[in-house]
Amino acid sequence: MAVSPPIDDHTEALDLTVRGFLFCLRRDLEGRLTLAAPHLEGYGAFALDWSSADVQRRIAGGRKQLLAKAIGLHKKPTLKVFDATAGLGRDGYTLAALGASVTLAERNPVLAALLRDAHRRALGLNLLRDAAGRMQLVEQDNTTDLGSAAAGTDVIYLDPMYPDDGKRALPSKEMQILRDLTGGDPDGDALLKAALATRTSRVVVKRPSKAPWLADAKPNLSMEGTQARFDIYLG
């Protein structure tokens, strides 16, 4: 998605139309970059906040929670993880808080700008600084650039968004806005194929519990939760 003018760390206000929808980027009174979608009535602007109760609750689950175990942090907390579908950065930050070094990769320039802003703010807060220091952000399309970008990492993590089929309820206003912004991740199959083509020893895919395997590729093992499943492919 091309954005003009570009979104950078000095952007104060920008309106852009994507997929026929208007989106508004603004700095709030706290200096946070926020995103709003005026076409969604009752949905206010939001900023990425890794100090939120939701993220802190995920971290409190420790290395025995499904996400951390699927990645392998219960055996080696210092793994290098390439989060190829960074999105809101919540899983990536959780993994960093549990000891991993995490590269957040995001191809959508609006989400990448929100992630940069969240990372900048996290580095300035005592509560978040250590984990944020183990994170870096790259803006790229991983269906084409994954091999070189993920070189040297231990695990590639994928959490592709479902395309909107009109049937599934969305869990939050943020995800509804993101779906309208991105249209979902209809090329999730291609992303998994790109990940499996790398020399990374483990690829982990987060899926809804009843969802089919990406690219119809059977994993070596799966870890089942009540709402999500982690499919694990070993190199």
Draw up the topology in text.
Elements lengths: L12 E6 L2 E7 L5 E4 L16 H8 L5 H6 L8 E4 L6 H8 L3 E6 L2 H15 L2 H7 L2 E5 L2 H8 L5 E4 L14 H10 L5 H9 L5 E7 L12 E4 L3 E7 L1
Parallel strand pairs: 4-5, 4-7, 5-6, 7-8
Antiparallel strand pairs: 1-2, 2-3, 8-10, 9-10
Helix pairs in contact: 1-3, 3-5, 4-5, 6-8
* Number of extended strands: 10
Helix and strand run: EEEHHEHEHHEHEHHEEE
What is the CATH third-level topology name?
Rossmann fold
Mean pLDDT: 90
Shape: globular
- CATH homology-level superfamily: Vaccinia Virus protein VP39
End-to-end span in angstroms?
Answer: 32 Å
* CATH A-level architecture: 3-Layer(aba) Sandwich
Overview of this protein structure:
By secondary structure, this protein is of the alpha/beta class. The chain has a single domain (51-169, 183-234), classed as Rossmann fold, CATH 3.40.50. 30% of the residues lie in helices and 23% in strands. The strands form two sheets. A seven-stranded mixed beta sheet has the order 6-5-4-7-8-10-9, sandwiched between helices. A three-stranded antiparallel beta sheet has the order 1-2-3. 37% of the residues are buried.
